[in-house]
């Protein structure tokens, strides 16, 4: 449950207060002391005490017209209820649904996203029991009777509804409410608007293999087009027969168009898009398309620190392919470690303090580490005859081996290897 609450809180706290767009009342009340009391009560495992304080905050926020604080109360109430309510998720879902019906933009969007996560959490916890349920065309209000498909459809629908009024969502910046954020702020800049955040949450759901339709579905090679061609492409059912996969690509394209001038965000989005597309693309040229798309992205963001992230992905690709070729000299990736090293060194030289450069530096340490991977030789060796050994190694100038004479019968059939 800790992850559920943290993720929900993460989404909530990102919804900043822009008076013109979000229509938040002018509430100057300092809630920090009350929230500190809530945190202290939860840490001491005193859920009822926490609930009492939450009720006080909710009453105060309602009087002041502060919907943001009321949403936060509902999230924390779920955490408090976990300790003493067996069906705490079901009661939270009911509470959120009631609030959703009365909510206005953009709070309604936030509620839809949080509700989707609560339904997902309920399904994950009860998936074994739910697996025996039959899919219903007329969905009952009793969620215990729903099938996997009913849950997946409900969750997907709510995530898409959280993106309604797209134009207005794009106008709500997140950096005006950093004092309310409950998360590590390191990557906040990659989601500059409320639309970015809600899209990101939806993408995580739609792109997860766990939530995909039961039949296997792959993307066409169009999903791996370079960014400039991808942004112009017509994403439809021809890309994939999976509605969710198509939805993911549509969302990525919207975000990339929105952030095309923000190179850090753009690089993050395109790398994420390519990672997803490559994982579900099963064509002969997928590797070539993936590398071409990454090289195209390098040209787009070459003056940004984010280029080091792209270099790291390219270097990792060449490294992984080399490991998979099993020293097959006929493989196209037999010497690809040299390319991997060159890319890492370039990233470190360009922007040594960038996050991607740090990752490249760690990969370089691994690539330059002397190692003997495998040693193999013939099973049958005859006396007084030479025999060959195959040694796979890296970064070694000299290799030494020692042949040790043993007493055959004693070594193989002695007490050391006797089986009682």
Secondary structural class: mainly alpha
**Tally of separate helices:** 19
Regions with little confidence, pLDDT below 50 for 5+ residues:
1-24
Shape: globular
- Spatially, the strands of the biggest sheet line up as 1-2
- Provide mean pLDDT, rounded: 82
**Count of extended strands:** 2
Helical content band: 55-70%
Determine Rg (CA atoms, Å). 28 Å
In whole angstroms, the N-to-C terminal distance is 50 Å
Largest β sheet strand count, sense and barrel closure: 2 strands, antiparallel
**Strand-residue proportion:** under 5%
What is the element string, with H for helices and E for strands? HHHHHHHHHHHHHHHHHHEEH
SSE layout:
Elements: H1 2-14, H2 19-22, H3 32-43, H4 47-64, H5 67-81, H6 88-102, H7 107-125, H8 127-130, H9 148-161, H10 166-169, H11 194-206, H12 227-232, H13 243-258, H14 263-279, H15 286-300, H16 307-324, H17 336-350, H18 355-368, E1 371-377, E2 389-394, H19 408-413
Antiparallel strand pairs: 1-2
Helix pairs in contact: 1-5, 1-7, 3-4, 4-5, 5-6, 6-7, 7-9, 11-13, 13-14, 14-15, 15-16, 16-17, 16-18, 17-18
């Amino acid at each position: 449950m800790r992850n559920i609450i943290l993720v929900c809180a993460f989404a909530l706290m990102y919804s900043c207060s822009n008076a013109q767009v979000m229509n938040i009342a002018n509430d100057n009340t300092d809630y920090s002391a009350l929230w500190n009391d809530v945190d202290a009560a939860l840490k001491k495992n005193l859920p009822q005490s926490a609930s009492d304080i939450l009720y006080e905050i909710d009453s105060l926020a309602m009087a002041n017209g502060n919907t943001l604080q009321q949403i936060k109360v509902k999230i924390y109430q779920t955490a408090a209820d976990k300790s003493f309510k067996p069906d705490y998720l079901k009661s939270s879902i009911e509470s959120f649904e009631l609030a959703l019906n009365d909510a206005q933009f953009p709070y309604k969007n936030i509620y839809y996203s949080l509700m989707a996560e609560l339904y997902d959490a309920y399904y994950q916890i009860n998936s074994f029991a739910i697996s025996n349920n039959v899919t219903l065309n007329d969905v009952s209000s009793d969620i215990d009777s729903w099938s996997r498909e009913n849950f997946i459809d409900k969750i997907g629908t709510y995530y898409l509804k959280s993106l309604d009024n797209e134009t207005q969502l794009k106008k709500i910046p997140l950096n005006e409410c950093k004092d309310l954020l409950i998360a590590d702020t390191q990557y906040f800049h990659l989601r500059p608007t409320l639309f970015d955040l809600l899209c990101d949450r939806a993408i995580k759901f739609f792109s997860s293999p766990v939530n995909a339709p039961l039949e296997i579905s792959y993307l066409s090679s169009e999903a791996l087009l370079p960014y400039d061609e991808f942004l112009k492409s017509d994403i439809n059912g021809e890309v994939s027969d999976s509605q969710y996969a198509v939805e993911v690509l549509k969302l990525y394209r919207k975000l990339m168009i929105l952030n095309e001038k923000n190179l850090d965000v753009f690089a993050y989005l395109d790398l994420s898009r390519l990672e997803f597309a490559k994982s579900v693309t099963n064509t002969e040229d997928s590797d070539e398309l993936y590398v071409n798309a990454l090289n195209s992205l390098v040209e787009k963001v070459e003056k940004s620190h984010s280029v080091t992230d792209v270099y790291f992905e390219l270097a990792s690709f060449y490294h992984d392919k080399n490991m998979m070729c099993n020293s097959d000299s006929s493989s196209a990736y037999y010497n690809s470690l040299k390319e991997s090293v060159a890319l890492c060194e370039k990233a470190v030289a360009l922007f040594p303090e960038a996050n991607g450069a740090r990752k490249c530096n760690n990969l370089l340490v691994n690539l330059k580490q002397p190692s003997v991977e495998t040693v193999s030789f013939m099973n049958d060796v005859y006396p007084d005859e030479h025999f060959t050994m195959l040694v796979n190694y890296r970064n070694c100038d000299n290799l030494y081996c020692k042949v040790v004479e043993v007493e055959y019968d004693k070594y193989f059939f002695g007490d050391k290897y006797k089986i009682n």
